[in-house]
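SAMPLE LOG
Freezer: B-3
Tube label: C17
Construct: single chain, 590 aa
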Amino acid sequence: MGGGVIARDLYETNSRLGDDAKSVLVIEKGPLLFHSHCLNTARPEGLANDRGQQNDTFFARFRQDYKFETADGGNDVYGGPMYNLGGRSATWGLFAPRIHENTLARYFPVAVETALKDTYYEKAEKLFNISLPTTKIIHQHLIDRLNAAAESDHGIHWQWGKIASEFKDDKNFDFAEGAYSTIDRLLEIAMSKPLGPPPEKRPQEHINFKMLIRTEVRKLEINSQKTVTGVVVRTEAGVEHTIKLKANGRVILAAGSVNSPAILFRSNISPRADCLLTDHDVIYRSLAFRYLKENYEKLVGAMKLQTYFNLGLGDNRVGLVDMSIDASSYLPRSNTADYSLPQFIMAFIIPCTLEPSCNVNLGSNNEPTVKIVRNTRYSTTERQKYEERMKKVIESATGVIEKHFKVEFIGKDKPFMNNEYFGKLELCAIASELGTLPMPGRGTEASSVDENLKLKGGYEGIYVCDLSVFPMSPEVNPSLTLAALALRLSRHLVPRRRYRATTTTEICVVNSSGRPIKVWVSNLGGAQRKYLQPEVVLPGGRFATERILNVQESVMVYRLSKADESQYSTEPELYIGHPGGGRKGVITIL
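STRUCTURE (predicted):
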């Protein structure tokens, strides 16, 4: 998620920079894999009985296993890396909530907290195409009753879960976009190569953007001044090559919480902090149910609701609750013989600090080994407190659903798994393990990268942007936050230009479209004209002309013809120019 979002954003920034565009190389160990969120894609056999988005089945089919320090180290682990373009964004579960403000304020650097809340969460949500389903009256009544029935000190406020997908498009014959993955935009870039000159018009390589797949990054080349100068890669045939960086080049590691530190270890770089690979607990209960009124199942359909909740520990720590009602879920179904019965699943995600007994090291074969255990940072008393509160949340919700939807829960009062009330999801099962190269927290803990995700220790040109940089394991799926951090890092490394009119009478047209355009500005006010014909503005360029203060002018923009890209369209796009200085006088063409 981190590397794919950065690559996309740098590509789009390049379209605004013209001759100052940066050279970007994306290196991926694996091949191309169609992902579970495509609407009309080929799928592996055996999914006929799966439900919904099928991300869990895809993850199980295509993921690799971690290598553990001990033979029994993976007994409670169900996860591992995926080596393919876009990584595990091919199968992630689509819930995309923000980290709660209490968690940000408690654990994250002030600068990061401020940037996420003020700017980058909103940008990431737009990127993810966050959408909400259609709300029927019966849905809203249930949500209202759930909130009214919750105990006041639990901090419960049920609402639709934020999903990174488009449920539908209201335009006729226009397909919904489907669910978000970084693969889509990377493929679009690869397939949208500029055309060469006529008559052949052969596709040309992107000048400043390349993708190299089936190639593994093994280590970094560092000079005596601790500056990165190259990347050592290995092909599928086992041959190693060194890719040299340009002057002042930079490397962004986005290989995941296990492989990013492994690359540093092979480069003889010791991170400042211990590699404490950590995953939060996901505690859940699943119940089958049946509708007592025949038409209600069709009327209600599927629901996925979400709320934060106060853990009840006296320090405002919060967890997250996911509720699925007859909807696809990343969690196991109840042990009911009748598989066709609809399911109610409620999952609680518990935040935690980094676990000191976990680590990542290099084995004798120079490959990473992993030790990961369940978090031990909560006392027995604290666990009893929040689990008792969780039971009350479930009992309150199921009681409301029984009355409002006219349903009967099966085995509601029986133990769930291993004679326990709750089940626990295996570690790494939802690809949320993190924390091996953490940014600074609010305490005295050591950190491996700074608040701008630059590697500490006096190294130059090395950045990290994957789940390894998290200073703790939050109460939410961390994908939205990682995407927001990736956008922030992208804009930090290559800032986007913000043009302003240089005088109070200037109209300025900025070409951020990535293609040449022609611009012509009317002269209703009768200013002395410098340009009598439309002017060509190259990608990343700007066109400025003087007009009379406060007299609006027509701005005509001619794009390349879709029929013949060697010619400009004869039909312009029309804009209004406002001489007045600052941002008011600027028109940006996207």
